[in-house]
Design a protein that fits this description.
Helix content: 40-55%
Largest sheet: none
Structural class: mainly alpha
Distance between the termini: 83 Å
Shape: elongated
Radius of gyration: 32 Å
Oligomer: single chain
Number of strands: 0
Strand content: under 5%
């Protein structure tokens, strides 16, 4: 009977060695043939890009429809000032920039309108640049 134990195998044949190999295999680059390989940087870029797009969409819609009553609440009073005898003072205007009355937030509303039109034109341009067989209206 030998007085010393056998040296461990270099591949880590014990329980701890096998467990360690399983943990390390989670980060290996080997993928099966035909299986898509995802780069973590690309996945992170997609996540950040989606969050950015949702943030821009939220700001545009909020600025256009909600901020200080939205643009639609300002259109009729503006037309009444332009085409009737009503004045800005009839709608609460006392002087820029402090008391604009119903016209509070018109800069944000118009910039959101301009941004939404630019996004719409950009989307239309991308759609028109696609080949006809890829367009699915």
């Amino acid at each position: 009977m030998p007085l010393h134990r056998a040296a461990p195998k270099p591949g880590g044949a014990g329980v701890i060695g096998r467990a360690w190999k399983r943990v390390l295999s989670l980060w290996e680059d080997g993928a099966a043939d035909g299986e898509p390989v995802y780069d973590p940087v690309h996945v992170a870029a997609v996540v950040v890009g989606c969050l950015l797009a949702l943030g821009v969409l939220f700001w545009v819609l909020w600025g256009f429809l909600v901020c200080e009553g939205g643009l639609f609440t300002k259109i009729l009073p503006f037309l009444q000032v332009v085409f009737t005898s009503k004045t800005l003072k009839d709608f609460g205007y006392e002087g820029a920039p402090y008391a604009l009355g119903i016209f509070e937030g018109w800069i944000i509303n118009l910039s959101a309108l301009g941004m939404s039109l630019a996004l719409l034109a950009g989307g239309w341009r991308v759609f028109r640049s696609l080949p006809p067989e890829r367009r699915n209206p």
